[in-house]
Specification:
Helix content: 10-25%
Structural class: alpha/beta
Number of helices: 13
Number of strands: 19
CATH architecture of the largest domain: Alpha-Beta Barrel
Radius of gyration: 25 Å
Largest sheet: 8 strands, parallel, barrel
CATH topology of the largest domain: TIM Barrel
Strand order of the largest sheet: 2-3-4-7-8-9-10-11
Distance between the termini: 57 Å
Length: about 525
């Protein structure tokens, strides 16, 4: 949606606030975000002099190289995300079961992740327990069947849903406050005929229920192997951290708003210790302290997202200049293949403009969804006519790492390897990469990590692994794992050379000096 004119017209809405947010909006380029996640077992990463008495890698020799893969390489922390539900729920197609409609979406081959976005009242009917809708359960069952992890957001409020966001058991306890202003549009759509209000998020009953919601969710999904990430639950519409185009917010003043949302964010941080929280980069139109939440997100090594790509300058700047160890998600609704909607301009479709600009900001994920009309036939109606843009982004988004160079050397009776890592993807590595050289029988197992975010999108990052005395490197395996919030995920090397079932590569000389 185009919020620019409203941002200009709003002026100093909410200027009666007691004071500004602790962290004002700022450029992210050259901003000091700290050193990134802690690195366990840090590998030596240079320099690597080869000659003289001070040689670290005496007379080292490149023994093996790899070349970039041209295929989709699925990994944690990246990929195309198929939407089973957005703002208006899952597909409800005439003459088709819900199971079939969802499975047709999940099995689309060029997607690697699944996304669902229910309203709070859809997943909780009574205090103390969660009651997930049928489509939530169907989605997770299919995720396991098709080996695709799930990302999700619980929407606290939703302008496209006729009922309030809060569960019914809170309605008599927490008041709603009507928003100031008007949202003009076609009254046949829910968002344009609904009277928009927000709950008093700072009410003790709301705060207690919000904490319980996160406790119940985290008990089942924090560390669940089928969960990729969870969107941070934020203020306002869809949980995007705004109530555009309405003026101000529903709090007594902006300081209360900022303090309330920081407290709610800290609750999520406390309980979601293993799953990345993904915070929206939304500018603070509603004056609720978004910059504070983003700062805290980055400093706790969680992730960020934007809910479109052709939008505010500040969101583009933040995505483009985030620390390399932070993943970025881009949600952008795509068109179908209907000639009336495809938006052809000088031979370029609207979807191609979208995918190219998602890659321009170095995103890790891109949404595959049809804007309130989720159905596999809608996605494929475009892809069947114009496959190139989607095939391109599926093979370039996120990190695509490989051991570009492998050097071998001998030092004081022991063999060493230097692995030169390359990244041919569009994003940095969203966490810490661990390298392990091992033998199938387990006799050799040497492991350690490179610095956060490496290898970057250009250049080679070198790291050294020393093997046990008397060990030959040839025939050993080299694997990579991604460490995010203390959890390790196997990484598939993105190389054309043959890899093993576990994503590792078997070391063998394929070049000679």
């Amino acid at each position: 949606m185009n919020r620019r004119t409203f941002l200009q017209a709003a002026g100093v809405a909410g200027s009666a606030a007691l004071g500004p947010a602790a962290i004002p909006e700022h450029n992210w380029e050259k901003y000091d975000w700290g050193a990134g996640p802690a690195v366990q077992d840090r590998l030596y990463q240079g320099p690597f002099p080869q000659y003289s008495t001070d040689a670290v890698v005496p007379d080292s020799d490149v023994v093996m190289v790899t070349t970039p893969s041209t295929e989709i390489v699925p990994n944690y922390g990246m990929g195309l995300v198929i939407y089973v539900s957005g703002d208006t729920g899952p597909p409800r197609l005439a003459g088709e079961t819900l199971e079939k409609s969802i499975e047709d979406l999940v099995k689309i081959p060029f997607t690697q992740k699944i996304y669902i976005r229910p309203n709070w009242r859809e997943i909780q009917k009574t205090p103390g327990r969660l009651d997930f809708p049928d489509w939530w359960k169907i989605t997770f069952d299919l995720a396991k069947q098709y080996n695709k992890r799930v990302g999700f957001r619980i929407m606290l409020e939703n302008p496209d849903f006729p009922e309030p966001g809060m569960p019914e058991f809170l309605m008599s306890k927490v008041p709603y406050v009507k928003l100031k202003g008007e949202w003009k549009g076609n009254p046949s759509e829910t968002r344009y005929r609904k009277e928009h209000s927000m709950p008093r998020y700072d009410h003790p009953a709301y705060q207690a229920a919000f904490r319980e919601l996160n406790q119940l969710l985290a008990a089942e999904f924090n560390g669940n192997p089928w969960v990729e990430y969870m969107d941070t639950m934020m203020y306002g519409f869809w949980g995007e951290a705004h109530s555009w185009p309405f003026d101000g917010n529903i709090f007594p003043n902006n300081v209360v708003a900022e303090q309330t949302w920081m407290k709610m964010f800290e609750t999520q941080l406390e309980l979601w210790t293993k799953v990345p929280l993904v915070t929206n980069t939304q500018p603070d139109f509603s004056h609720v302290g978004n910059a504070d939440l983003l700062d805290r997100t980055i400093r706790t090594h969680n992730w960020i997202r934007t809910d479109t790509i052709f939008i505010e300058n500040t969101q583009i700047e933040a995505l483009s200049n985030r620390p390399p160890w932070i993943a970025a998600l881009c949600e952008v609704g795509m068109t179908t293949g209907d000639p009336k909607h495809v938006g052809m301009d000088e031979g370029v479709t609207l979807n191609e403009k979208i995918t190219s600009h998602v890659l321009d900001v170095g995103a890790n994920y891109w949404s595959v969804w049809n804007w309130h009309n989720e159905a596999a036939k809608n996605v494929l109606s475009y892809y069947d006519k114009y496959p190139e843009p989607i095939d391109h982004i599926a093979r370039h988004i996120g990190y695509r790492i490989r051991p570009s160079f492998i050097w071998s050397f001998e030092r004081e009776g022991s063999t060493g390897l230097v692995v030169g890592l390359a990244n041919n993807g569009g994003a940095g590595v969203p966490g810490v990469l661990r390298l392990t050289v091992f033998s199938e029988d387990g006799a050799v197992h040497v492991s350690g990590c490179v610095d956060p975010g490496y290898p970057k999108r250009s250049g080679i990052r070198q790291a050294m692994l020393m093997l046990p005395s008397g060990t030959s490197w040839s025939g050993l395996r080299l694997k990579a794992e991604l460490e995010v919030k203390g959890v390790r995920y196997p990484v598939n090397w993105a190389c054309r050379q043959k890899t093993n079932a576990d994503g590792s590569i078997t070391l063998a000389r394929n070049v000679r000096a």
